[in-house]
Task: inverse folding
């Protein structure tokens, strides 16, 4: 994982103890970006670019979201497992901006709502989302 600030953990509540894979995270990320694109179409401007200014790279089962360099530096997303428990960990890149932290919180909340689960924020607070 990146050497940056560890912070957001999403613990999805999957039916039957099912774990989640990095491939499923990539699919979730694409669904998220598609929703942003759709919002942009409805608004008539490039909302996706403004709302998600990252390019995605995968290396060693970790997704690296590289920021645009101005307002955003980046973050990393990985799936962690300990015993029966599986969670999604999101860490900020070194030198991450307040914008990165905000985007990490926003995407993590969306993921937790979509998967149904528990989200531990950078502030240490925990949010719980029931499965929809």
Result:
């Amino acid at each position: 994982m990146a050497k940056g600030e560890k912070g957001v953990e999403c613990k999805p509540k999957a039916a039957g103890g099912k774990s989640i894979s990095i491939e499923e995270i990539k699919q979730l990320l694409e669904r998220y970006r598609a929703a942003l694109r759709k919002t942009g179409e409805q608004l008539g401007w490039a909302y996706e670019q403004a709302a998600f200014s990252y390019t995605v790279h995968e290396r060693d089962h970790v997704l690296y979201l590289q920021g645009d360099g101005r307002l955003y530096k980046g973050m990393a997303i990985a799936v962690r497992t300990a015993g029966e428990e599986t969670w999604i960990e999101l860490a900020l890149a070194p030198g991450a901006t307040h914008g990165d932290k905000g985007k990490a919180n926003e995407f993590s909340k969306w993921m937790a709502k979509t998967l149904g689960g528990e989200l531990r924020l950078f502030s240490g607070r925990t949010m719980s989302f029931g499965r929809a």
